[in-house]
TrEMBL record:
Ranges of compositional bias, category Basic and acidic residues: 248-271
Lineage: Bacteria, Pseudomonadati, Pseudomonadota, Alphaproteobacteria, Rhodobacterales
Keywords per UniProt: Membrane, Transmembrane, Transmembrane helix
Transmembrane segments: 6-24, 36-56, 62-80, 101-118, 124-141, 162-183, 189-211, 223-242
Species for this entry: Paracoccus solventivorans
The keyword Transmembrane helix belongs to this UniProt entry's keyword annotation: yes
Start and end residues of each stretch annotated as Disordered: 247-271
Protein name as catalogued: Zinc transporter, ZIP family
Amino acid sequence: MEIWAVLLLALLPGLGNFAGGMLAEFGGASPRMLNFALHAASGIVIGIVAVELIPAALEGLAGWWIALAVAAGGVAYVLIEAGVERLQQKKGTGTDRTSMWMIYVAVAVDLTADGVMLGSGTAVSLAFGVTLAAGQVLADLPEGFAAVADLRENGVPRKRRIMLSASFILYCVGAALLAYLLLRGAPDAAKLAALAFAAGLLSVAAVEDMLDEAHEAREDTHGSVLAFVGGLALFVLVSAGLETVLGDDPHDPAQNEAVRSEGERSADPAA
């Protein structure tokens, strides 16, 4: 049954992204709204990295392993970005279309990282996976809004915009299922390393692409900064609230060990 829980959790960020995209498609999107949405999304993503992913990794991995995993995630994102830029240059596309596809890649990579994060997080703890999914729904609403607004600004037809927006769901679901299937029986260190890798991907996507696109949409104001801080604060509140409601702290090694021991006893017929 747990694999169905992973599937459901992975659908949530993708559907949130699609809902944000349809809001931009049918509700309109001004440059100011786009700027604010991307700042809020970046704040939420940074909150996920700072409040959930890195603290969880610190409980079970040495610092240098975490540093390597985070760096690997960041390098992977940079390589993907460089590859897309090279392909766009070979096709002779202009700067605007390159920017359009880079925001698509930024969101696609972020949804893939969401999937890796949710798959590995749920392998650690179902409650942990729920918290991560809730945070990503909050982040993906403005991300989807920004992606569709950018596609529309670059003259992409409506039918294609909707199809591209819907395609983001596949990245998250596919990556989550793959990560869960690979990691459910793996050592805890491997699961935590996957979380740190996702943290590297998400950090680069938030800082280098989302914020860069926000600055291109409109010059920053004090409201932009408040949107970023608001997104960060919102995720902290959501994380704390869900931890209280679910009664499961994924950062407590003693609690996690007790849960694992109980699971092992339940799976042992002789127990």
